[in-house]
């Protein structure tokens, strides 16, 4: 198993350099897949919470605690874009486990026009990934896992296929309820681009990422804290922004450097999360994503973009979750989750 994971890891680093351009494709892979993840800022690779949806965040979080768990999720994303996912996990033996999930995002219907503004009718667009995960316990407190994600994407009559791989590890100390997770995420290749260029496929790189996180529950207070570091493979998150210049005669748009200080840049790699857990059947979550707050801010107001909130409730044999997150002043999202364990119905 160790040699298998090392081989997968080396393969991931090898194919991460195989790309057709500096642009990235399949960015839907970075969207939160459940209400709990959305409430904790969109990414969490270290949380131990008996939630099968967390396997998509880190394949090493797949363990016997989610055996025969099934979950369905829906996110009403920005501009009513619909995201849904289903997940299921099962034990192979006392050390090995498998899981499968499906993520789908529907961008809705659009009206197509030619350059001469002639209508070509309506068309749709969407992205889909099928995620197969295998994990194994290496030591008493250490789990390792790998996820293979075949990807299909379509826009009108254009189609694309790709494959992504996640490799993760997790250390968990149940006595002190402390967990550390490390993931190499979304490393892969676009086999078929949306179109051909100069007789060959136009391929783009995948949004691969290295993420590190830690979660700690306080021993004598009903609080659990998470810190997640993202984009560790890419420190400089600077970008250029467009500024409009107008006069009585002409108007123009120029690009100017949006310089970011070292401290601000560091915070953009961090997601802070906290949970209030007064009982096993109820909890409230909140998080702050600094990069989201800064990059989606308007000149006149920031609102509460960058913040996210959620609630979890266990009723009978079902776990219910709901989350609210604001990406921008007009970019509100609502996430809903429903999960249960099939063993509870025996």
- Proportion of residues in helical segments: under 10%
What is the CA-CA span between the terminal residues?
33 Å
- The parts where pLDDT drops under 50 for at least 5 residues are 11-22, 245-256
Q: What does the average pLDDT come to? A: 87
The number of helical segments is 4
How many beta-strand elements?
18
- Main sheet makeup: 14 strands, antiparallel, barrel
* Rounded Rg: 21 Å
Order of helices and strands: HHEEEEEEEEEEEEEHEEHEEE
User: How big a fraction of the residues is strand?
Assistant: over 45%
Shape: globular
- The spatial strand order of the largest sheet comes to 1-2-3-4-5-6-7-10-11-14-15-16-17-18
What class do helices, strands and sheet pairing give? mainly beta
